[in-house]
Amino acid sequence: MFAFIVDDILVIDLACGFGWCGSPAWYFLPGALINGLYENAVLTPPVSLQPPLSGLFWCDDHTCIEVDRGMRCVIANLALRRAINTVLGPSAINERKFTNWSNNRACTGTRMGNKSGHRHDTAR
């Protein structure tokens, strides 16, 4: 994704990088379906989640940020896998792309931790 100016025209390219040939609109439909199924997961046996699961997606990347309370993270993991399997089939689940649930994660050069609330700069 990038932007540039030609004369008086601002051009914003929102195509997905890393070899994807379609625009975000091309990936929006399956992404929206997966996210909708995730957020409205029907669980067996029925489990009431308060607040409900909340998913985020851009093109074909899904991000689940959940409170680590009880079985919530396990339920979120299963709900996302079921949604991906339903929309794209079992071969679409790439285990290497699933990250483990963690209290600490690096993002944009900053290590974030939710246990202590501290940020640790990891950029060099």
Automatic annotation (TrEMBL):
Residues 1-17 form the signal peptide. The keyword Signal applies. Keywords: Signal. This is Reverse transcriptase domain-containing protein. It comes from Phytophthora fragariae.
